[in-house]
């Protein structure tokens, strides 16, 4: 198989997920590939949005819609460039993380999807399935599960 032309990595803004971004950026940089950095987010319900508006006033936009995801994607994209990726596209999509990552992998024709291993060894992950586990079963491309916990 030749080198990858498009690599997709998921992040939730955690330090653990940023380690997956670092690994994906290194792979994309070495291959001269496009790196798509994705963040799935949950839409606020109208009641939550109103409560935020009541408490935050003019600053409520910072917690509504895609704005928080876009902020963390800027940080992830900067980090990816520092780790060697040259063509980085940040993407925020409302929805379940597994659904979003699988859909984006298809939309961008990604040959590699990179996720961190967080959740694989948790009780909830064993009972309900984790993002890395579910993505590895559903994605139609290579999946790299990066060991992201500190040793």
Could you explain the architecture of this structure?
Helices cover 46% and strands 21% of the residues. It has one domain: HUPs (Rossmann fold), CATH 3.40.50. The chain is an alpha/beta fold. It has six helices and five strands; from the N terminus they run βαβααβαβααβ. A five-stranded parallel sheet has the order 3-2-1-4-5, with helices on both faces. About 11% of the residues have low confidence.
Strand content: 15-25%
Task: Determine and state the CATH class.
Answer: Alpha Beta
Q: What is Rg? A: 16 Å
CATH architecture: 3-Layer(aba) Sandwich
Helix content: 40-55%
String of helices and strands: EHEHHEHEHHE
* Strand order in the sheet with the most strands: 3-2-1-4-5
The geometry reads as globular
CATH domain fold name: Rossmann fold
Number of helices: 6
Structural class, please? alpha/beta
- Tell me the distance between the termini: 32 Å
Give the topology, please.
Layout: E1 6-10, H1 15-31, E2 34-41, H2 46-56, H3 67-82, E3 87-94, H4 97-107, E4 112-116, H5 123-128, H6 131-138, E5 142-146
Parallel strand pairs: 1-2, 1-4, 2-3, 4-5
Q: Summed up, what is this model?
A:
The chain has 151 residues and is α/β, with parallel strands linked by helices.
């Amino acid at each position: 198989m030749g080198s990858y032309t498009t690599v997709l990595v998921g992040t939730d803004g955690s330090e653990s997920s940023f380690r997956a971004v670092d690994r994906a950026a290194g792979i994309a940089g070495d291959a001269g590939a496009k790196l798509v950095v994705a963040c799935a987010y949950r839409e606020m319900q109208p009641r939550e949005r109103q409560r935020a508006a009541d408490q935050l006033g003019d600053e409520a936009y910072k917690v509504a819609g895609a704005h928080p995801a876009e902020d963390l994607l800027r940080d992830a994209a900067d980090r990816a460039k520092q780790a060697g990726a040259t063509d980085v596209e940040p993407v925020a999509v409302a929805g379940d993380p597994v659904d979003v990552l699988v859909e984006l992998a298809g939309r961008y024709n990604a040959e590699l999807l990179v996720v961190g291993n967080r959740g694989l060894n948790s009780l909830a992950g064993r009972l309900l399935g984790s993002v890395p586990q579910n993505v590895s079963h559903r994605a139609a491309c290579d999946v790299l599960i990066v060991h992201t916990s500190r040793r």
